[in-house]
Amino acid sequence: DDLKYDLRIYVLLYGINPMRVYIHEQGIARFATEPYIAPKASNIDNLFMHLTNYAINKTNAVLIELSGTKGGVPADEEESEDGEEGSEEEESGHKRSLNAILKLLYEQGADPDRIMDEIKDIVVKTLIVG
């Protein structure tokens, strides 16, 4: 969608020796609310383009209003302590489930299992360095 995004992958380091790591099946992708253009003097201050924080992007007038939601947040869901909406099952909008992202990538010809294997590899290598 030409939007900058980040992935949140939830990891539990249960033991160090031996290393035991659990990666939650669900994660989320958070999207900026304006199409990404490489940083330059004329757009460097556009937080809606360069940052994916929900607390920032929820104030942008172009935030996609999903059916029955306010700012992408289901009307019956409250924000968490860090200011993020509660629903992670949306397949469109500016906060989507990891499964929705993997489904989209699959539809575009990518291999979701390989992507997840690479993410797991990155997680393990990051923990080993620590």
Secondary-structure element string: EEHHEEEHH
Mean pLDDT: 81
| Quaternary class | single chain
Largest sheet: number of strands, sense, barrel closure:
3 strands, antiparallel
How much of the polypeptide forms β-strand, as a percent range? 15-25%
Percentage of helical residues? Answer: 25-40%
Distance between the termini: 35 Å
Any idea what the radius of gyration is? 17 Å
Specify the overall morphology. Answer: globular
Q: Which structural class matches the secondary elements?
A: alpha+beta
Strand order of the largest sheet: 1-2-5
How many beta-strand segments? 5
Give the helix tally. 4
Topology:
Layout: E1 5-16, E2 19-31, H1 47-50, H2 54-57, E3 69-70, E4 73-74, E5 95-97, H3 98-107, H4 112-129
Antiparallel strand pairs: 1-2, 2-5, 3-4
